[in-house]
What does this fold into?
Amino acid sequence: MSTPPLRLFFAIPCCPQLARDIAEWRAQHPLDGKPVAPENLHMTIAFLGSQPRGQVEALEALANGLERVGFTLQLDRLERWKNGLLHLAPSKVPQALCDFERDLRERLLASGYELESRPFKPHLTLARHCPRLPAAPTPTFDWPVTEFTLFASENTIKGTRYRALGQWPLRPPAPS
Ligand code: ATP
Ligand code: MG
It folds into this structure.
């Protein structure tokens, strides 16, 4: 019997401190819409969609080969897209994040994966189906990014949960 495919994506998971800070801010500024569970807060770097389980090993090897340099993200914009996705975004995208996303995307495309063709817009989703931008003051969160993860997105009775299949450290950036 064949095993069911996995719904895979590479992402930067929120560190516990940032997840707590965001949860606290959300509690002070209740938002309309469906909030993302604190343990699911993340930034997607590459979405692969449905893939055979046998691909995981090759994806691990691909991730091992990436140039992995960390960076700090300053999430200082609160935005809502027309599809109702409320998110935090950086007004300045670190070059190390651009380089990392491009390296990952190019290696995935070279390996035959089909990826989203729209330009990468780094964002951390706070809530979905949000009818309006909240009147809350725009928060600023500093996010030291030190690792990234290959996740399988799974439907559970508690809603969508992400299972980490592999995790890779990013080395500290050189002091400026
Ligand atoms: P749910 O869809 O069950 O409400 P979710 O969106 O968190 O929850 P997934 O749809 O599995 O779970 O998505 C996992 C991650 O991949 C999320 O960050 C999501 O925004 C992103 N993603 C999903 N579909 C695409 C896509 N077609 N292109 C780019 N990113 C996607
Ligand atoms: Mg989804």
User: Anything to note?
Assistant: The first helix runs from residue 16 to 28. The two ends are 55 Å apart (CA to CA). DSSP finds three helices and nine strands in the chain.
